[in-house]
Write a structure and sequence with these properties.
Layout (H helix, E strand, L loop, with lengths): L2 E6 L4 H8 L5 E7 L5 H8 L4 E3 L8 H15 L3 E4 L8 H6 L4 E5 L11 H8 L3 E8 L9 E8 L6 H24 L3 E4 L2 E4 L9 E2 L6
Parallel strand pairs: 1-2, 1-4, 2-3, 4-5
Antiparallel strand pairs: 5-6, 6-7, 7-10, 8-9
Helix pairs in contact: 1-6
Bound molecules: glycinamide ribonucleotide.
Length: 212
């Protein structure tokens, strides 16, 4: 059975969605870069081991990344999941987990990488917004796209209402992407993601290169 480690920085609602999805694998640990965050408590309530690698204890990105990698590697996971992990990771860390490090981002990448995605989407006047699950590469919020979900932007939307509807979609597509990985159905071909086997939900928009 494959296993995964989930990295969080806060509320942990995506982590919770992954825990409650009943994935075909084991969640070996949840690790936060901040002590005392809500997500740690939720993980504990589900009987999952939690750890903290407090970023304030490390002088720079490199030493923090090395300490984090040590904790992760002690769990020997097949997959490492960023679920609202809000610390930028260095190249050495990202390259160490190449092809087995996933992130969820609250926009339809490559639009709106970075922070404040919902405010920026409103300012740009886009009519369609959404979220993306992708493999992590050294360039922040880039990397091969695994799955995306789109929502319509409504005339009276605020950043908060958009965030709430996008988050619902994150909670649907992240477990789906992780399930594909756990089932061995994801392949990277020329830096594009291919998914084999049946795709259940046609209300989700998928990355190009999909294989049935
Ligand atoms: C989510 O909306 C996630 O997409 C975003 O942070 C939120 C975390 O919520 N991540 C990023 O912006 C990463 N670039 P959660 O802690 O409730 O899962």
């Amino acid at each position: 059975m494959k296993s995964l480690v989930i990295l969080i920085s806060g509320r942990g609602s995506n982590m919770q969605a992954l825990i409650e999805a009943g994935l075909p694998g084991r969640i070996a640990a949840v690790i936060s870069n901040k002590p005392g965050v809500e997500g740690l408590e939720i993980a504990r309530m589900h009987g999952i081991e939690t750890r903290v690698v407090d970023q304030r204890a490390y002088a720079d990105r490199v030493t923090f990344g090395a300490a984090l990698a040590e904790e992760i590697d002690s769990c020997q996971p097949d997959l490492v999941i960023l679920a609202g992990f809000m610390r930028i990771l260095g190249d050495a860390f990202v390259n160490r987990y190449q092809g087995r490090l996933m992130n969820v981002h609250p926009s339809l990448l490559p639009a709106f990488p970075g922070l404040d995605t919902h405010t920026r989407a409103l300012q740009a006047g886009v009519k369609i917004h959404g979220c993306t699950v992708h493999f992590v590469t050294p360039q922040v919020d880039h990397g091969p796209i695994i799955i995306q979900a789109a929502i319509q932007v409504l005339p009276d939307d605020t950043a908060e209402t958009l965030a709430a509807r996008v988050l619902q979609q994150e909670h649907r597509i992240y477990p789906e992407a992780v399930r594909w990985f756990m089932e061995g159905r994801l392949r990277l071909v020329n830096n594009h993601v291919e998914v084999s086997g049946a795709i259940a939900d046609n209300s989700v928009l998928y990355s190009p290169g999909l294989r049935k």
